[in-house]
Design a protein that fits this description.
The protein is built from one helix and three strands, in the order E-E-H-E. It is an alpha+beta fold. The chain has a three-stranded antiparallel beta sheet, with no helix packed on it. 1% of the residues are buried.
Amino acid sequence: MTRNRYIFESVIDGYVNVYEPSGKFNNCAFSFCIPDEALGRCETDRQELLEWAKLKAPNPKRCEVALPKWDEEGLVKYSYGGDTNKT
């Protein structure tokens, strides 16, 4: 198993819409919280991966260095799908 793959138990939280696209962006969405015991490891691994990407990526200027996909408590919001036929 790769070093930066995480398996942990969590509960889907917040706005949950995983069955049928809807809402303003006609997509599906859910959120979950990374447990404290995994959160520190995720943050450390993210920093290491960003450093690696700056040195090894084919185009390091395109490396995503924005804020992590989780907040201070480890809440991750995930959305998928979406309306690609906007007029």
